[in-house]
Write a structure and sequence with these properties.
By secondary structure, this protein is mainly β. The protein is built from one helix and 20 strands. Strands 1, 13, 14, 15, 16, 17, 18, 19 and 20 form a nine-stranded antiparallel beta sheet that branches. The chain has a seven-stranded antiparallel beta sheet with strand order 2-3-4-11-6-9-12, with no helix packed on it. It is globular.
Amino acid sequence: MIKHYNISNQAYGEFNGGEIVENKPIGFPHDGGKLKPYSNLFYWAHASAKKDSMIGLHPHRGFEIMSIVLEGNIQHYDTLLKEWIPLEKGDVQLIQSGSGISHAEAMQSESEIFQIWFNPDLRKTLSHPAKYLDVKGKDLPQTNNITTIVGKDSPIQLESEKIEITQIALQVGKFKMDIEKEFYYSFYLIEGELKIHQVRVSKDDFFIVEDEESLNYEVLVNGRMLCIKSPETLSYPVY
């Protein structure tokens, strides 16, 4: 089964009068959009800065919050490190918010990030001290066209169970990807164009694959996409 959500079916948000805009494949209940949280994926936003702007200090508890810099540069501040940390294209930041942390992001004009929230076992994580990790893009494992963000040999480890995250560089041609049953495979097309079962998938489209043995797709325009593999069944309740 393949479920396809183009940008018009995703939620929308903005900061500072539209200086930063977001499309959200998985938004909060009040955001709108057709897709609600599933598995241990709680929230997924693609933020773009139209000019230099800041998302001010705001709190988090319990959840694991990952930011992936897709373009440009950002700076991050949190109440654990108490300093501004620069991040650039390819870098990844993980906040395991535990018993509580506040953070802020300053985005340069034309910068883009993913911010993705994962749902660990909150019965445990709400009592843990907050943790923070930055990883440079060059320090993530790369094999051929695949960069592993979470998975084998990656320095990033999540408490949310059975998550694997890869970024795939797309080259024109026809390809096949093996799919494990009992997992969701969630894809965001960052750039490029695909065709899957005669359906065209364009920039900023989101699609979910489940209960398949493989995914056959054709790359029509070079690009890149993010894939998150997550379990259909969890060993703990989610929020």
